[in-house]
Amino acid sequence: MKIVLEYYTSGKNPSFLASVIILSLISIFLSSIGSYPISLPKRIGKINDYGNVLTRRDRQKLSDQLDQLNAKGIDLILLISTRDPYLNPNIFTSKIRAKWGIRGEKAKSLVVFVKESDKWAVRIFLTTETTNLFSPEGLTKCRDSLETKADAGDIRSGAMYAINHLYRKAFPPVKSTGSGQNEKNGMGWVYIVSGIAGGILLLGALLRWEGMNRCPRCGTRLKTSKGNRQARKETEKYCPECGYRD
To answer: Structure pTM?
Structure first.
């Protein structure tokens, strides 16, 4: 933009001329700013941590999970940025999607954590395939959790939660099968039968012992007596009722 100033210097106040020159320079500077495009973060992969909040182990774990999600047809990209040239997270997220080519027919899910002056904001865009993994209540709860973590400035935890939570939705834990339960029930019956059999054997042994200590004539419990026969001590059982001796 050209600004042409025409004025006569004769009879003019020097301070007035200085003001005109300064204003002209400011106008030229402002117009030159508008001619340069705004710089946005470049996409370097599925995980774009420009805030440097994730550890190497975090990145490895999240990368593995994102690869498994991708194999299932769920594409998710994470962006963490400490700068928003638009000072508006909604505009920033929209511009990022346009610059990275992840909208329209090539749309991909996107989770953005961006720092706005002295606080963080989070914006989420999910494709239909990703949204279908959640119930309406579950999706609302997920967004609320991410916003809470962003408000607290806990971006590492928020990034881990976003991907871990989606991963658990896509790959829910395997529940115990019916065969396993039947096997446990079968083992329970084995223990029960073994216990009953052991009880029967113990009862039989007790009855046999009791029978050996009863008089075969009258059924009275036998008593024992000790005596010496041919210089040997012997124990003899006898019935106090009928005189039977064993």
So the answer is: 0.60
* Segment 144-201, tens digit of pLDDT: 999 999 999 999 999 999 999 999 999 998 775 555 555 556 666 677 877 787 778 7
Tokens 């749309």 appear where? 107
Report CA 160 to chain centroid distance, whole Å.
8
Give the strand pairing for 109-116 and 119-125.
Answer: antiparallel
- CATH topology (fold) of 47-170: Diaminopimelate Epimerase; Chain A, domain 1 (3.10.310)
Helix or strand or coil: residue 165?
Answer: helix
Q: Which of 197, 182, 141, 137 is nearest to 165 (CA)?
A: 141
pLDDT digits 0-9 by tens, 42-52: 999 999 999 99
The amino acid occupying position 176 is S
